[in-house]
Design a protein that fits this description.
single chain; 220 residues; alpha+beta; eight-stranded antiparallel beta sheet
């Protein structure tokens, strides 16, 4: 009888041990699934933010100094122009007209339907005798600063960099389109000079690396 009781106790201990192991495995799987759900949710939220709300950009050159420096990483807001039109002086991220695989960051200078004249390092809009006030320029504008007249098409914008002496902006894109074989002549390449509204990815909002900086609007 004693032997039978001992065997029953041993069986109970074995069953309890196996049950504990099963519960431990179940608990571990629940924890792993919980972490997996968190990771999947984080990925989905990240994809939503980067595809619908934010555009992430790396600045490769000094064309927008001193506002943005080479190597800066920044976010742009994709939703800004869902509710209003782009405005002059906005700093925007857009698809480079000559190669839409590349994203550029420049400042809006010319609006749809405007005539933009560059004369002696000054910019005039339509028939204005007063040039734009551009106190964001980092240095005296010496390179390609005269003899340009841009007729901005409807639904398009004229983009220039702040650091005009090094910026590869709208002043050069017609020639680049010709050199890349996209146009039969520089004149025909002028179609690539402007950025269509639907190619603007978002308004630049802030840099997050290597430092955080809000990119405030230029104010006259």
């Amino acid at each position: 009888m004693k032997k039978l009781n001992d065997e029953l106790k041993n069986d109970e201990i074995v069953m309890e041990t196996e049950q504990e192991k099963t519960e431990e495995k179940t608990s571990l799987w629940k924890e792993l699934l919980s972490w997996l759900e968190i990771i999947v949710a984080a990925i989905l939220i990240s994809l939503f933010l980067t595809r619908v709300v934010l555009v992430n950009a790396l600045v490769p050159s000094s064309s927008m100094e001193t506002l943005i420096s080479p190597g800066d990483r920044l976010f742009g807001n994709r939703l800004t122009y869902k509710f209003k039109d782009p405005e002059r002086f906005d700093v925007v991220i857009f698809k480079y007209p000559v190669d839409e695989e590349e994203n550029y960051i420049k400042r809006i200078i010319g609006l749809p339907g405007e005539t933009v004249t560059i004369e002696d390092a000054k910019i005039y809009i339509n028939d204005s005798e007063m040039p734009l006030e551009e106190n964001y320029l980092p240095e005296e504008w010496l390179i390609e600063n005269d003899g340009y007249v841009f007729e901005v098409p409807e639904d398009c914008y004229l983009m220039l960099g702040d650091n005009r002496n090094v910026s590869e902006d709208a002043r050069y894109w017609a020639e680049e389109a010709y050199e890349f074989g996209l146009a039969d002549s520089v004149e025909a390449g002028e179609a690539y000079t402007y950025v269509h509204r639907d190619k603007i990815l978002g308004k630049a909002v802030f840099t997050y690396w290597p430092h955080f900086q809000l990119l405030s609007d230029y104010e006259e």
